[in-house]
Amino acid sequence: MTIKDLDPKSVWGYFYDITQIPRPSKKEEKIIAYLLDFAKKFNLEAKQDKAGNVLITKQATTGKENVPTVILQSHIDMVCEKNNDVTHDFDNDPIETIIDGDWVKANGTTLGADNGMGIAAALAVLAANDIAHGKIEALFTVDEETGLTGANSLQPDFFTGSKLINLDTEEEGQIYIGCAGGKGTKAYFKYKMKDVPKNYFWFKVQVKGLRGGHSGSDIDRGFGNANKILNRFMFSLTRKKFGLVLSQIGGGNLHNAIAREAFAVMGVKDKYKEDVRVKLNHFLADVQNELKQTDPGVDISMESVQIPSNIINKKVTEKLILAIHACPHGVIGMSHEIDGLVETSTNLASVKMIDDNLIEIGTSQRSSIESCKDSIVNTVSSVFDLAGAKVTHNDGYPGWQPNTDSALLKLAQQEYEILFGKTPEVKAIHAGLECGLFLEKYPQLDMISIGPDMTDVHSPAEQVNIPSVDKWWKYLVRILEAIPAESTEAQKD
Q1: Active-site residue numbers?
Q2: What is the pLDDT of residues 361-394, one digit of tens each?
Q3: Which of 363, 350, 352, 359 lies closest to 388, judged by CA?
Q4: What 3-state DSSP class applies to 144?
């Protein structure tokens, strides 16, 4: 059996097609071409804006001409993460999918169900001839994962609908009506390369086996951060007796993923070789005990390496270690309005040695309260400012304030209860959705977000639950068929 054999076949069939098309953020040309070809195949109107966003329009079915236009929205890029022992070129290779019981996952890479499932469901609606619905505008946005630039670039006249269903959440049976805003902060340490000292023991420490996950929806689950764990060990060696020196360092990759792996090549004075091994064994035991409930796969290895060609100057090494140690990571505050919702957080996402003798530290901050977002951005900035690093920020994006009086929400609640005999949860999410940006440009929008069950998105453990996809699809169809026609007065207005 392949995923094309799963039910609903239309959704899984399109999802299979999508897995065969490379679509990293900012490199969506191939999936855009696929969408435009799809529109031609079904004789549907399609257009593309300067940013690359695609809108495919399907007219109302007979008898539904007076139903308000509904926008089905998903983003077409995916997070590209893989395990270190996996060979995969995200620019050219298809995703290899695996059916594992009730779940679909990928072979050592991210699956791209975020947001490939949303794309697939929208295409299935556009291709269907057995769903009664008003006019559909399927909006496919680019570059959501690395800056929401597609949504940010939308022009106010690109679509016409007043009701929007975002297909980018990850819990079936839950309706999302709000999300956090976010901002990215980067710090740059300029270093000089120095000669390698004599009589040193050289070794490489690797942190691996962590779950990683989404820096928004998983930030409160207690998963380990490889950058913070590695730095804790390095910090323990900064006492003068060890004479710690650093040659290479790296960890994490994307701003919206919790770092799963990290490494450093370093040296200590020869006479402390065994002391360092013993210290690492004790440190590993401590970390495994700390994470035994949330991230039990954590492992830290140490191996001897050849003498490196040079080292990072000691002053920058010390400031780098101190700054990463002081930089906050994780939940900063919980909401006092919505039970269980993370209000504010920050993610120490990546440490990279880049061109021009620079070490780049990537972090991201989120909050459902704009002033709290600014505050945690300033906290992180202050840590790196004090360490003498150059700090930069991206433009960020706004949150989506919940509207509990939403007519679309009330309809969605009602139809879920009729279809499945239970009440759906209405929630806000700490992850970022494009809805806040849409609302800035289209203030009349009435929006909800729904999706199937997914876990460990933004990591190679990403998977989507098969039975939940079937329920989600039936629910989406039910909502589209149940939206009432506008009154004559409303049409005149």
Answers
A1: 77, 144
A2: 999 999 999 999 999 999 999 999 999 999 999 9
A3: 359
A4: coil
